[in-house]
Amino acid sequence: MLDTLKNSFVECTGRERARVLLDKGTFRELLGPFEGLESPHLEPQGIVPQSDDGVVIGKGELNGNPAVVISIEGSFQGGGIGEVSGAKIAGALEMAFEKNKSGNIIYPIFIFDTGGVRLQEANYGLLSIAEMSAAIVALREYVPVIGVIPGKIGAFGGMSINAGLCSTLIITREGRLGLNGPEVIEQEAGIMEFDSTDRKRIWNTIGGRQRVAAGFADIEVEDDISSFREAILSAIQQGAVERPRSSQVERYLSFIGSVNTSEVLTPQKVQDLWAESNRYNSDESSKVTDSSVIKIKSRGHRWFNLLTAGSKNIGVAPSVLCSDAIIGGKPVRFLAVVPDESSRFPRARSGEFGLEQGWMIAKHIRDAIEDDRINEEKRAIIAIVDVPSQAYGYREELLGIHQACAAAVDAYASARLAGHPVIAFIPGKAISGAFLSHGMQASRLIALDDDGVNVHVMSKQSAARITQRTIEELEEATKKVPSMAYDVRSFEKLGALHELISGIKADEPAGADRDVIYKSLITAVEDIQNSPRDLSRRLTSNFAKEGGRSASIIVRRKLAEQWY
Amino acid sequence: MEKLSFRFPATQTLESNAHVGVVGSGDLEILMEPSEQGYADVTVRTGTTGFNQIWKTVLERFFSNNDVSAIIKINDFGATPGVVSLRLSQALEVGRNAGYAKK
Predict the structure, then answer these.
(1) Does B99 touch chain A (CB under 8 A)?
(2) Ramachandran sector of residue A190 (left: φ over 0; alpha: ψ -120 to 50; beta: rest)
(3) Are residues A242 and A312 in the same domain?
(4) pLDDT at residue A225 above 90?
(5) Mean pLDDT, rounded, for A423-449
(6) Cβ of B27 and A75 within 8 Å?
(7) How much is the ipTM here?
(8) Using CA atoms, how far apart are residues A299 and A385, in angstroms rounded to an integer?
(9) With contact defined as beta carbons under 8 Å apart, do A413 and A133 qualify?
């Protein structure tokens, strides 16, 4: 019989999606529903868990090519990433990396259907997403990491950054890709900035067709199983991509630079600018800002000035400071994101991590990698982290803020893999997408023990709105679940911190404080030079082993057992 | 969230594990595992509280029509009684047909 009806891929459940992509009879699920690996954090909060925690890991073959499919079930908790689901994904990517590295080719196919971090597990999601990023960047050198956004939910939050790191991104017209969901932008920036009920505007901003036309995705597919398979196969045949999107700093910088921010920006205009950016030559941004004339407006800025001790700021954008120095005989490059009242992008004037910040951070890191290419000793890259949030805005989404974040993530991870000791020093706020982009790829995280040091995934107001709780209910929940709390002491219990330093005047640091931090940085650099270049330390620390990351560790162990 | 337990006598064992559904709006997830105990042991976790009697009625009806000795876990996200019965039938069909695979 002639089969003229199309076979919808979008309508499939997460498990069916993994199964139908693979050749018939080859699908084998790892860590399936009967393994008893559900989230341990939901039931205590009165939320019904799902047996697979909303992630399916399937091994099999695609046209005879060994493949591992990671498929997120968007219907369960909006595809949100918690500790178990996050560890399943990160663990699968890490395993795929190990296998490819040792010569056994296996193609990773990553199906996104997620709102980002699962707010009920908050910082566990943040940590897992950073671990996925690290694995994608490492893996991409060997095989293409193929991202698929079929649609229903799409790829949002920190997971949009991971989509931005993929070698090839396949999307349907119904697929959506953006850092901040419309509701969150409306909550954070007001209804004038983005009306979350304006469907047409949403599709024209973050919908699949616009994303392909404006340089943020590669292949638009029809919602048909065979179309998805064909698109994935073409990506496999293409092989590892030499210059993934998130590493194309020059082109995107000129693209962002060509935007006239005093005009209304339409989706069509963005498509035109993207097409032109291929030819556009940017050297207009070569003027260097003298940081001494910028008024100090943030804690991060104060620390930057103190730690760089008068070294010249070579940052190009006023909001991104960059300076080379020698501490304890070791070459280092300091980077900080600071407020800039006169930024062309109004939503990124208070120190938020936005478009220019992402691409500029990436540029400064990549310059250092290039300069040190032949040097035996690679300079340390030190991110000074005081970032209140990512920038929430319509223009930001239209111009792909998720991709700017991915560029920074990619640069930090690439520096780490190239042998640069990468350290995040956290004297202030480390929030959400901003922290993922600026800090979380560091080999070591060093924070100050201070009330002004916060680590979290979303403001309380937005988190309350999205999880449909009152702020009081939310605060009640954070008392029971350390990963949901905002303070750095709670974050420390998750095991990701290398050091928490007390007795420092975080707001008004002086010379003595600088000496303490220098000492800690130098020790960390030496420690890094004798350890693996991945993020494994976060899972082997005492806090992690003693309960902070129990589920993450068990998931990885079981995954390795079942991987054959 | 509420956790409910039920037990119904049974004689016939299930052939294989069965897993159906998702914990998504208006739906539920069911896991059935074969058991030699001679009971259908049902544990329900539901986000919609206060429906004990309805669960009891729906499950009693299902297990009086279907003799199955199994451990059954139900993770519910606001499924209606009709959806619950359909999913139970589906799970049973999967569990009685070892090797059955969707699509």
Answers:
(1) no
(2) left
(3) no
(4) yes
(5) 97
(6) yes
(7) 0.94
(8) 9
(9) yes
Higher pLDDT, B31 or A465: B31
- How close A371 gets to chain B, by Cα (Å)? 51
Residues A246-261: pLDDT tens digits? 999 999 999 999 999 9
B53 CA: distance to closest CA in chain A (Å) = 19
Query: B1 and A43 in contact by Cβ < 8 A?
Result: yes
The counts of H helices and E strands in chain A are 22, 15
What is the predicted pLDDT for the residue at B93? Answer: 95
A188 and A294 part of one domain: no
Residue B102 predicted with pLDDT over 50:
no
Question: Is residue A373 domain-resident?
Answer: yes
- Cα–Cα separations (whole angstroms), residue B41 to A141, B73, B76, B80: 50, 8, 16, 21
Q: What are phi and psi of A558, to 5 degrees?
A: -65, -35
CB within 8 Å: B23 and A48: yes
Which of A127-136, A289-298, A347-356 has the weakest average pLDDT? Answer: A289-298
Mean pLDDT (chain A) is 94
Number of structural domains (chain B) is 1
Domain of B79 in residue numbering reads as 2-96
Could you tell me if residue B33 is inside a domain? yes
pTM, to two decimals: 0.95
Note whether residue B72 is domain-resident: yes
pLDDT value at position A417? 98
Q: What is the pLDDT of residue A457?
A: 87
CATH number assigned to the domain comprising residue B73? 3.30.230
* Domain identity same for A321 and A190: no
- Indicate whether A269 belongs to any domain: no
Q: For A49, which residue in chain B has the nearest alpha carbon?
A: B75
Q: Residue A385 belongs to what domain range?
A: 283-562
Q: Which residue of B has its CA nearest to A74?
A: B24
CB A381 within 8 A of CB A422: yes
> In 3D, which of A504, A500, A527, A499 has the Cα closest to residue A515?
A504
Domain CATH for A370: 3.90.226.10
